[in-house]
Specification:
About 70% of the residues lie in helices and about 5% in strands. By secondary structure, the protein is mainly alpha-helical. It folds into 2 domains: about 120 residues, no CATH class; about 240 residues, no CATH class. Strand 2 and strand 3 form a beta hairpin. Helix 9 crosses helix 11, helix 9 crosses helix 12 and helix 13 runs antiparallel to helix 14. The N and C termini lie far apart (about 55 Å).
């Protein structure tokens, strides 16, 4: 394996490869400064073709090819690390070893950066769903937030009273969950043509239990075009998590936009479990923003929640505490900086910014649309 990788790197790291990667890196950075160009030529031009080809190639495979790729990558890193410490303890490290290692690291970094952006990452710099729906997303007042939270509370209470345990249990069969999410997008596309999603490529993560310790509920693999869902999270979260990852597949890179697109899909689907899932999340996002501004008002909202909502909130808190560990905050710190580096200055709080999209949405179309 080591000899194969060494030969592969030797062939790739030719002078022309360096020049090509450096030129592409500069071009990608330059293009990212022009969201209108990215929206027109990449997000609505090249990317849909790339995404469709990826999903055709890998969507039919029942397991996550992308997860196997990540596993292989982790194995390589472990092997390289083991080899480094082995040479270090034997005092056989040389200047040439460090130079070659540094060259390989820089080349690998450029390679990943270029293909990450060409396959998907440029979507971080598009004009996005606000542009497509002509929404004016801006700072909002506490009154705006109060209106939104009141409506989200009404919706989540309404669906909490109608979702049965049998409906929740039906999603224990993940093929049913994913097929239902696909149907949700089919319904959403009737009103928003740009949300057309085909073919399907959404799968359980092979790292679901590990994800509980690292703090993720789902993720998108830009190299395989697959959406992965942590299928060990509480059941009431799964429908919205699934539609969120599918939003990433459609080219909505920013977390606030993926949240909003997932919201559009879930609420378009005439399924109480899906609607409860999205309104549960949207209510909690809105409530979190209320807490930041007026804790007394937030408590007033919480006093009015349906017993099932309160039960699910407690279940989620228990779930989070069960897997709490010293590594997760470090992972989330790194992830927050990754988001900031990709045009999301709020970092992890980017998820909460869906509140601004919801407020802009009802201000344009009326509160009844929520």
């Amino acid at each position: 394996m080591q000899q194969f990788l060494a030969r592969l790197f030797a062939r790739l790291m030719k002078s022309w490869s360096w020049v090509l990667l450096i030129v592409l890196t500069i071009l990608i950075k330059w293009v990212s400064w022009y969201p209108a160009w990215v929206e027109r030529n990449y997000s609505q031009g090249i990317y849909p073709v790339i995404a469709k080809v990826q999903r055709i190639l890998f969507g039919w495979i029942p397991f996550s090819v992308g997860d196997l790729f990540y596993s292989f990558l982790i194995l390589i890193i472990l092997v390289k690390t083991f080899k480094f410490f082995k040479l270090l303890f034997k005092r056989r490290l040389t200047r040439r070893y460090f130079v070659i290692g540094l060259q390989q690291a820089i080349f690998f970094g450029l390679f990943v950066y270029v293909f990450f952006n060409l396959f998907w990452g440029l979507n971080y710099n598009r004009k996005g769903i606000a542009h497509q729906l002509q929404l004016e997303v801006k700072q909002y007042s506490l009154t705006d937030l109060d209106t939104l939270t009141t409506i989200m509370l009404q919706r989540v209470n309404e669906y909490a009273a109608t979702v049965s345990e049998a409906q929740r249990d039906s999603f224990n069969k993940k093929s049913r969950l994913f097929n239902s999410a696909n149907e949700a997008y089919r319904e959403a596309a009737k009103q928003y043509s740009f949300l057309k999603y085909a073919p399907k490529s959404i799968k359980p993560s092979l790292f679901s239990y590990l994800g509980n310790y690292l703090g993720f509920q789902g993720y998108y693999n830009p190299f395989s075009g697959e959406g992965q869902v942590n299928t060990t999270v509480p059941r009431f979260l799964e429908p919205f998590v699934t539609t969120h990852e599918m939003a990433h597949q459609l080219g909505y890179g920013k977390e606030n936009e993926a949240n909003f697109v997932g919201y559009l899909a879930c609420k378009s689907y005439n399924n109480n479990a899906f609607r409860y899932s999205v309104y549960y999340d949207m209510y909690n996002y809105a409530l979190g923003e209320v807490y930041r501004r007026d804790t007394a008002l937030a408590r007033t909202f919480q006093e009015k929640v349906h017993p099932q909502v309160r039960k699910d909130q407690q279940e989620f808190r228990n779930f989070y505490r069960r897997y709490k560990n010293p590594i997760e905050p470090i992972i989330m710190w790194g992830y927050g900086h990754f988001l900031k580096a990709n045009n999301q200055p709020a970092g992890k709080r980017s998820y909460n910014e869906v509140v601004a999209w919801l407020i802009a949405y009802y201000k344009k179309y009326g509160t009844a649309i929520l």
